[in-house]
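All the exercises in this workshop are built on plain-text protein records. A learned vocabulary of local backbone shapes supplies the integers on the structure line. Once this layout is familiar, the rest of the handout is easier to follow. An example says more than a description, so a record of this kind follows:
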Amino acid sequence: VSARLARDRAVYAEFGPGNRDSWDQPLAGHLVASCAIPLIFPPVRLRLHGIEEELFDGAVPCAEPMSFQSLRACRDVIILEVVRDEEYERATINPLRWFDQRGRSALKLLVKQGISSLREVPLPPRVFRLTPSHILRHNILAFHARTAIMKSLDLGARDAGLFLLRPQDYIWKA
């Protein structure tokens, strides 16, 4: 998910099964745009439906709520989260932690909006929510923090193993 520079709506990568070139743009372009954090990385220009768009990270809230409606035909949807419920809107006075916390709260809000959008579907898919078993302690923008990132990746691998053993424990219940 990316967002238009004007923040009026999210832009969802479109895929049509049945053809190896089924993305509306090369997938790499969508991935880079979804990581273009304002004030840190420049927006990415993509041509979508004949219109040149400047896109940035979709985790920056837009005027339009996040939607997972494009997944409505799926039987199962797996949501990989990096933020635990107890982290949502946690207070801090440290300016750097405040920026990090704003990012974590935005991610949590967007996931909640996306999952809620699936409730509007006549036959909603099963939604599996995988959250880290522990709070990820590093700043989400500290890309140089290799040790902390590796610990988070190891935790993710362990958590994924637990999910594979008992997926029914991760089904989201409204």
Observations:
- The longest helix spans residues 95-118.
